[in-house]
Amino acid sequence: MTVNEDSFTNWKNREEIAESMIPIIGKLHRERDVTVLLHSRSLVNKSVVSILKTHRFARQIAGEELSVTETLPFLQALTTLELGPSQIDIGMLAATYRADDRGLPVAEFTAEAVAGATGPDRIERREPRDVVLYGFGRIGRLLARLLIEKAGSGNGLRLRAIVVRRGAGQDIVKRASLLRRDSIHGQFQGTITVDEANSKIIANGNEIKVIYSDDPTSVDYTAYGIKNAILIDNTGKWRDREGLSQHLRPGVDKVVLTAPGKGDVLNVVHGVNHEMIEPDERILSCASCTTNAIVPPLKAMADEYGVLRGHVETVHSFTNDQNLLDNYHNSDRRGRSAPLNMVITETGAASAVAKALPDLKARITGSSIRVPVPDVSIAILGLRLARETTREEVLDHLRNVSLASPLKRQIDFISAPDAVSSDFIGSRHASIVDAGATKVEGDDAILYLWYDNEFGYSCQVIRVVQHVSGVEYPTYPAPAV
C-alpha cells in the first residue's frame, strides 16, 4: 500500500469515528442541556469535517493534531453519567488526562473531572427565558441565528419576538429572506417559513412573532404571551438609562443594549467584568465590538506584565451608517463613499476601557479608520509595559490564555503566516491574536487583534444575555484561573 493510500485510509477511519460522535453530541444537547466543546469550540450541530478540523486546531497546544480516537472515549464516558446542564470540553479532558499520572480508567477520570455537573449541587434544568429583539438589522439577525441555534433542548433562551417598524409590501417575507440568506455569513442553518396571517417567522420550529411598532412605550408584550423577557435593543437609538427605560413594558424584565451605554449604564465585556452585573440591574450595555476586541487581551497583558499606557488604532470594516456614494452625512467624513475610500473616524473604544477595567490606571488613547471591506476588522494595540519581556514570552502567554484560562472564549490565537481578514468571518471569539504580526521589544508590545465585528460581537452579546438570564452553564473541566 502506498503512503497516499495509508493517509486516505486513516482519513476515512477518522471520518467514521467523527460520524459516530454526532448522535452522542446531539442527544446530550437535546436531552440534558449539555454542550460538548473541544477547546472552547462547540461541536453541537457540526459536520463530520468540522469536527475533524476542530480536532486539528489542537496542534496549537502540543504541536500535533488531537485525534478523534483520543476524545471519543471521553464522549462515551459522558453518556454513562447523570449530567446536569453544563458545557463539557472533551479537548481539555483529553489534555488533563494525558498529564495525569495516576493511571485512572477514562470513565473514572471523566466522572471525577465533571463531578460538579453530576453531584447534588448540579444545576437543574430551567424553564426557557423569553428574549425579544428590538430591531432586526445586521446584529439583530445574527443574534436571531445564534438564539435559534442555541435553543437546543428548549431549556435555555427562547426568541419569542422581534419588534420593527412596518415596511412596504411583503415586509415579513423580506425580513425572513434577510434572515435566510446573508451575503457575508452565508445561508441560515435550517429551515425558515413565514406565517403572514399571524405575523410570524418560523425558524427551525421556533415561532417568532413580528411586532410592528414605532414607539417602545406602545407595546404590551404580555398580549403576545411573553413574560419576564430580556429585550435586546440593537437599534442604538437610545443609549442612556432614561431612553432605554422606555422598553421596560409589561412582559419585559431587563434591557440589553448592543452599543456603548452612556451615563451610569454599565458597559459589559463578557469574560472581563460581567460578574459586576448586580442581580437587580435591569438596564445594561454590551459596549462596542471594538471594546470587546481590545479589553480581554488588554486585561491578559495587564495581569501578567502591567500596562503603563497604550494606544489602539482600529482598521474597521465599513458599516451601514456610512454612505455607498458621496452624500450628506452628519459626521465630517462618513458621508464619503464607504466602498471607495479609507475614512478616518472616531472611536469610543479607548475611553470605554476605563468602564470595563476600572482598576487599570493606564491611559489608553484610540482612533479608527474605516476601510472598504464588509466585515472583519483589526485592532492594533500598542502598549508600554511595566516590565521588559520578549516576543516569545508574550506569545506563549497569550496562546495559553486562549486555550486554558477564563478568557478562552474571548481570545483566540492564530499562527498561520498567510492569514487575512476574510479568514475570520464567523469567528465566535471577541478577538484573535495574530502571532506572526506581534512585535515586542523590551517594555514595548504591539498586538494585532482580528475580530469579526458582526458575528464575534454578537456571540459576546449572547454570553451576556445567558449570564443575566441564569442559563450560562458552568464549564468542565474548570479553566485555570
Describe the structure.
With 481 residues, the chain is α/β, with parallel strands linked by helices. The protein has three domains: 3-117, no CATH class; 129-259, NAD(P)-binding Rossmann-like Domain (Rossmann fold, 3-Layer(aba) Sandwich), CATH 3.40.50; 289-454, Dihydrodipicolinate Reductase, domain 2 (2-Layer Sandwich), CATH 3.30.360. Helix content is 32%, strand content 25%. The strands form four sheets. The protein has a nine-stranded mixed beta sheet. Strands 16-17-15-18-21-20-19 form a seven-stranded mixed beta sheet. A four-stranded mixed beta sheet has the order 2-1-3-22. Strand 20 and strand 21 form a beta hairpin. Helix 1 (3-32) packs across helix 2. It is globular, with a radius of gyration of 23 Å. The termini are far apart.
